[in-house]
Write a structure and sequence with these properties.
The chain has about 425 residues and is α/β, with parallel strands linked by helices. The chain has two domains: about 1-235 and about 410-425, Glycogen Phosphorylase B (Rossmann fold); about 255-405, 3-Layer(aba) Sandwich (Rossmann fold). Helices cover about 45% and strands about 15% of the residues. The chain is built from 16 helices and 13 strands. It has helices at about 15-30, 65-75, 90-100, 105-110, 125-140, 155-170, 180-185, 190-200, 210-220, 265-280, 295-305, 320-325, 345-350, 380-390, 390-405, 410-425, and strands spanning about 1-5, 35-40, 50-55, 150-155, 170-175, 205-210, 230, 255-260, 285-290, 310-315, 330-335, 355-360, 370-375. The strands form two sheets. It has a seven-stranded parallel beta sheet with strand order 3-2-1-4-5-6-7, sandwiched between helices. A six-stranded parallel beta sheet has the order 10-9-8-11-12-13, sandwiched between helices. α6 (about 155-170) links the parallel β4 and β5. The longest helix has 16 residues, at about 125-140. The two termini are about 15 Å apart. The relative contact order is 0.12.
Length: about 425
């Protein structure tokens, strides 16, 4: 079986969990005899092609005289980007983008319809321009390669998936890793919502990363439940034999938050729980690793609470730096308000770090050896963190059995279920 897969990022060039998930998924599919042609907006040449063939959308020329291009343009409209659409830039960069950005409807058409287009592959102010161009490229690529199924990841690539389906008639599977409701609560960007809805309506099958996400897809988008299938994410086993892990140089317990510092991830609940714990025990340090639009607000709140001497902001971490951070951590916390899945707790458990996660996360559906609390319950969150920091028997139990549990959550198993979704779409 051959799959044409559209993504927005691929390791080592990632800004969040989407690229990590795509990497693990493609490796798992390869073990089940599935060949994947993986398209990214911008390839750098150092991506791992052990399980996929990478196609650089920036290298793909578009025939502007083709009927597909002409009819597609009739459906493309310029959509001004809102703050919630750029989840992966730091606050200073966002402010700069926001100030510089102006509606450029006319100039938008020009670059999108040039024969060649150099994608940035980022989440900047021209994101909608890139999404539109990516769809044109999707239509072009679909005529050049042989494949059985189209698989599009998240709203950024849905239009490309639809274009490929309309060009070839091949079945389309769309993967919902996070909905607009997860990212923004009820303050949805109507343009993104419309792209998500249309992508799922046109798709032959919709894969959701959790039952939590499946419920949102059915109830908020009105998608037929019969074509929405949950396949939980997994985590890649890693070999740390060649990695020099740092020694923990502080005597205090270290509690870590690692993720985007945005509304969705609930960083403010982490800060408030830290304040409560430090009122009971001063021998604890807290780390907030990541970047996002709420970073400055969190720094200000920590200063206001006068706990800055016990709080550390590292900025965005990836690759080996994530493993090094876990090596220095005693507890990992994910207090997300709405988390479709959440791979980072699995990465922490894989590194022998016990975890506290919100009940409002998809990963809570598959984990037994994790402490689960409601994201808004600051007292419960503080108690769970305090317990793992101070009761060795509790933390040791969660470390021992959590590692075994995560080692069984392999992408190879998830990929087997994804292949079944492909097969059902082909029937």
């Amino acid at each position: 079986m051959k799959v044409l897969m559209f993504g927005w990022e691929f390791p080592p060039h990632i800004t969040g969990g989407l690229g990590t998930a795509c990497f693990g998924m493609t490796k798992g599919l390869a073990k089940h005899g599935v060949e994947v042609l993986f398209v990214v907006p911008k390839a750098y040449g150092d991506e791992s092609e052990e399980a996929v063939r990478i196609v650089n959308a920036s290298d793909v020329a578009v025939n502007l005289d083709s009927e597909e291009s002409k009819t597609y343009w009739e459906r493309v409209q310029y959509m001004e980007i809102g703050s919630n659409i750029i989840p992966y830039v730091g606050p200073e960069q966002f402010e700069k983008l926001h100030e510089e950005h102006q509606s450029v409807t006319e100039s938008f058409r020009g670059p999108v319809f040039s024969q060649k287009y150099e994608f940035s592959g980022k989440y900047g102010s021209n994101l909608m321009e890139e999404v539109a161009r990516y769809a044109l490229v999707g239509s072009s690529i679909a005529t050049q390669y042989d494949f059985d199924v189209i698989h599009a990841h998240d709203w950024l690539t849905y239009s490309a998936g639809i274009a490929a389906k309309e060009t070839t008639g091949k079945p389309l599977v769309v993967h919902m890793h996070a909905t607009e409701f997860d990212r923004t609560g009820e303050n949805v960007n109507t343009n993104v919502y419309a792209i998500e809805k249309r992508g799922m309506e046109v798709a032959d099958r919709v894969i959701t990363v959790s039952n939590l996400t499946r419920k949102i897809v059915i109830e908020k988008y009105g998608i037929d439940p019969r074509k929405v299938i949950t396949v939980h994410n997994a985590v890649e086993p890693i070999d740390k034999s060649g990695l020099e892990l740092p020694n923990k140089e502080v005597k205090e317990k270290v509690v870590t938050f690692l993720g985007r510092i945005t509304y969705q991830k609930g960083p403010e609940y982490f800060v408030e729980a830290a304040r409560k714990i430090l009122q009971r025990d001063n021998n604890v340090r807290f780390v907030m690793a990541g970047s996002g639009d709420l970073l400055n607000k969190m720094v200000q709140r920590v200063a206001q609470l006068r706990i800055g001497h016990k709080f550390h902001f590292t900025g965005f971490l990836k690759g080996d730096d994530v493993d090094k951070m876990f090596a220095m951590s005693d507890v990992f916390v994910m207090p997300s308000i709405s988390e479709p899945f959440g791979i980072v707790p699995l990465e922490a458990m894989r590194s022998n770090v016990p975890v506290v996660i919100s009940k409002q996360s998809g990963v809570a559906e598959v984990l037994k050896h994790a402490l689960k609390v409601d994201f808004w319950d600051i007292d419960g969150l503080a108690d769970a963190i305090y317990g793992l920091c101070h009761y060795n028997a509790l933390s040791e139990t969660f470390i021992k059995y959590g590692k075994v549990e995560v080692d069984n959550l392999k992408w190879e198993h998830a990929a087997k279920n994804i292949k079944k979704v492909y097969e059902s779409a082909l029937q």
